[in-house]
Amino acid sequence: VRGGAGGIGSRVRRPPLPKPDDRRYLGCLVVLGIARTPAEGHDLLDGETVFQTADGTTRWYSMPYDRNSVMWQLSFPVGEEAAAALSAAGPGALKREAVRRCGKWHDPIPSLLSGTPDEAVTGYPVYDRPVLTEEILDPDHGSCVTLAGDAAHPMSPFKGQGANQALADAVDLARCLYKITWRKTSDADAGPKEGKKAKVSAALRKYESLMMERSRVKVEASAHAAKFLHSDVAVAEGNVTRGGAAAALLDNKKVLR
């Protein structure tokens, strides 16, 4: 068995798939940083609170990282070439852009920015890929190569599902392979005799079926979130979730104020 789990740029993914560079740019850049918690403290920096702030274009998200630091994520719409150039410019340029956009926002955002060393900043354009199909994954019907995690279903970070889906992939893959290697079956259950490779391939196709069905909705929802979290939906008023606000606007319904 050969498994590709090397992220969106997985080298294992490239040979078996007809379109290895079918990435879809989702129209935004994400900047990540880790800040030392300001000594003066703040209600939003109690070590337990997650908060986000948005203005309809730019979005800030913070969460505790460890006892003395906070992880923050900044995202905003930008063209693909500009996003790639800013990412390539390095940590200093990324932090300057974060300060330009959010340096005068409410506390404790300015303090978090000032408490973030350049070397603790990274940033990248956001991509996903179309959801795989059985025909694309195994066109020859018998391969012992498979994919997992972002190598199979890269998605935007805005639903928090990338790592979760990768972990679920690992469990499903292990279960499918376990069933053909260790489970005892009666002669009645065994079915026709197959070669070892055929059994492994069948187990991988079962795993891929589970993986594709499970991850499809997450990929699509994450792409949708990349749009509405950087739009007026993010600041729409109403006793609804952001997803509910987005659905209301997409259905041309008024969000209750």
UniProtKB/TrEMBL annotation:
SUPFAM superfamilies attached to this UniProt entry: FAD/NAD(P)-binding domain
Presence of the UniProt keyword Oxidoreductase in the record: yes
UniProt GO molecular function: FAD binding; monooxygenase activity
Record keywords, A-Z: FAD, Flavoprotein, Monooxygenase, Oxidoreductase
Keyword presence, Endoplasmic reticulum: no
InterPro entries in UniProt: FAD-bd, FAD/NAD-bd_sf
Lineage: superkingdom: Eukaryota
A Pfam family it matches: FAD_binding_3
Occurrences of domain FAD-binding (ranges): 145-178
Protein name, UniProt field: FAD-binding domain-containing protein
Species annotation: Corethron hystrix
